[in-house]
Structures
1.
Amino acid sequence: MMKKLALFILWASGILFVHAQLPQKGMWKDTDGNFINAHAAGIMKYKNTYYWYGENKGGFTSQDPTSHIERVIMGGVNCYSSKDLLTWKFEGVVLPPEPNDRNSDLHPSKVIERPKVIYNKKTKQFVMWVHAESADYSKACAGVAVSKTPTGPFKYLGSFRPNGGMSRDQTLFVDDDGTAYQICSSEENQTLHINRLTPDYLKCDGTYKRALIGMSREAPAVFKYKGKYYLLSSGCTGWAPNKADIAVADSIMGEWTMLGNPCVSENGDKTYMGQSTFVLPLKDRFIALFDEWHPRNLSDSRYFWLPIEIDKKTDRMTIPWREVWEGIKP
Ligand code: GAL
């Protein structure tokens, strides 16, 4: 009886243990004992496994002479897999750099950021969209890559400006009907664009909407709750932290209304020194993923994940700081 009870408590507090072992902003390690190197991440669930895709940021940080933005040599996109969101196995560099082609978006001298992967049930392909940049951040394009397996290697198809608009920070969202959207910071990061994708998820289909016009929002993460669409985003201050916001809309195409900063604990006006990257839905609970950037040494940047707390009566969403948390199971 005692044993059964102990086991039950262990099971019931699964995520509590997750965060006892993955201390917020600590150096999270993979199953080989190496630090997880997957920044500005997106997570995709496929057949009971979670795949974490993120920027491979290694080596020295330098400053681009034109944009003065801190950068590392572009290392492509890394992938880790997990069944419990706690133990992460390194699956490799699934979108590797192309060091022999100076003109490629994947040349180490370029910038690849904010990879997001979705699965297309019709084509049975995993589709990755990234922010494809030049070192001086003037390119502002979206890049697309495909793979038959979640762990790649992904084949890079090229980059473009979605519907002719600039595309920097970006994310993907698949609606319940299978229609997918790319949401990006456009118009010199002043306005978000919501670009509907073709059924194969490889291009834009021509329908798009400008959202949060002139509000300078970045780092978008979209999720759906009780039929409404929510958009967590940051302000626009480079690697430096700023105030987050959650916006809501009845349709993915808007109208979007900003609801204010959900980060209600101390340092919440600076998003706990982090920046949003993704919201992971787990049944009807949501985990918000953040990066804490260390621009002097970008490869030392950290992660923290926080549950989104939803008021049962009003549906108001807040993200209080939690060093450990419980009650959400993968
Ligand atoms: C941030 C953006 C990051 C990266 C950085 C470069 O605003 O969210 O993804 O592009 O600027 O300074």
2.
Amino acid sequence: MVKNEILIVDDSEINREMLRLILEDEYDIVEASNGQEAIDIIEKGDHVFRLVLLDLVMPVLNGYETLQEFNKRGWQHKLPVIIISGDSTDEALSRAYDLGAADFFAKPYNPQIVLRRVMNVIASREYSYRDLLTGAYNRSGFLQMANNFLQKCEDRTKYAVMFFDVKNFKAINSVLGTEGGDAVLKQTYRGMSGAGLEPIFVSRFEADHFVCLVEADKIDIDAMMHENNQVLDWTGRSMQFRFRTGISYIDSDGDVINFVDRAKLSLSYIEDEYLKPYAIFDDKMANNYINAASVTSEFDTSMANEEFKVYYQPIMEAATGKIASAEALIRWIHPIRGFVRPDLFIPVLEKDGFISKLDLFVDRKVNQVMRRWHDQGLPTVPVSVNLSWMDFYDQDMIQNILDHVAQRVTAPGSVRYEITESSFAALKENRGDVLSALREQGAWLLMDDFGSGYSSLGMLMHYKFDILKIDMSFVRQLENNPDVKHIVKMIIDMCHLLGMKVVAEGAETETQVNILREDNCDYIQGYYFSKPLPEEDFKQFLAKCKAEGKI
Ligand code: C2E
Ligand code: MG
Ligand code: MG
């Protein structure tokens, strides 16, 4: 059980002692003998005080001056103050209340009353640390409490952070409604607080994500698997739900948020959602690890330092083996971390709204490079640029692209954009017409990662595409799964009926390439032909194609 901390500020040692005796069973007590000392202790940050008991008449900085200093620092909302002075004239009290004091204790202290009122005042401020729905700590409450707790631990390596994600929470919400979703969250919190884990702090960190600080010894994978299948009884229906869990052992100094980020990151390394729905953070992940905050804070500098490079992956014509086009793929080559995988920073940039800057950079760069090569008499091909769903929420981005496309199209399809179905919602909410406007100006649209999501067919119904890219996950299984082979063949035929060409993504073997050829797939992209190449290497690749008549 972790006790809340209270700061007693009084120049009289006897007075401090009396209050300490009343409170110390329930609370951790820290003492200061005047206002300045109190401020120094709070600012040092070793404690998270839930309450200050403040004398009014003191040397150095008296009670009123102390309250004024608190207010200057914006503490009045976070840190309740109870006055404990012997000077209880109406005038003294109303001055203290004006300065934000929450309550007043008269001497002699009645232990029962003191305890009650301390509890009440703390409880009434508690909401800023708590998630109102579940009663768990909220994000900032958890981080404060956990950081403070670990700071005081002799051996922080005895602890671990666990990150729980309610699987398919969106689906639960849409089946049961928001109230049903809320019930799932409440049950999750109750389950966690009661579980054998005996977490030190439980928080609903964000949406359907729960984070716990636990003793590492208490983590019992078997028990966790057992408790993973939760059943919610909701207005006569029972609904099953499960968690995905990431675990990060606290093995070094640093803010708890780092361990939360690691635990969350390890979720993306879960290999089997059913048999092993958890992952433990390890150093291999650490090489790839980059926390969201540092992506955001470094983005502008990294752009300015040209750490972002555009790579080009050739796309070949299936029937002839000639190069047909290429896809522009962004690479972040970080001076310290080295190569950072796009799937680690793109989602972060999407959340922060920076992705549009990056996409615009790629668009401009591709255009600039191809124009230069063309002017130098070198071979070029159309290069497609990936757009993010976020771009369609950004009116400036849309306008920028639209403004430049018209000037750049030299032949239909010389400018191309790849869009995934995750853009669907953004398009519907914003400028659905932007896609047709782009096509009218001669740009081609590619439906990316077809088949990987839920509403690909819906996208095809609403918008017109020139080329469809079959997701890599299908190509992977072409050789071993006859059903997949049929699905791929059917997608290709469907596209041809709808007047679209087809690219198969991620072909790595000769067998895959042969099957795709037999099935009349138009184009193939994959390591079998080439990995994504830096600009210079791509230039060579094109030169070689030219020399061999493959362009
Ligand atoms: P995507 O658009 O589907 O890009 C294809 C991904 O498949 C690339 O991963 C490429 O390197 C990989 N790939 C191609 N052939 C093979 C293969 O034979 N085997 C395997 N294992 N992989 C292959 P990459 O470059 O890591 O990019 C991942 C995703 O990040 C892209 O998926 C795209 O959605 C996004 N992305 C990349 N660059 C940009 C960009 O400039 N802007 C935006 N908004 N997203 C980008
Ligand atoms: Mg793509
Ligand atoms: Mg793709």
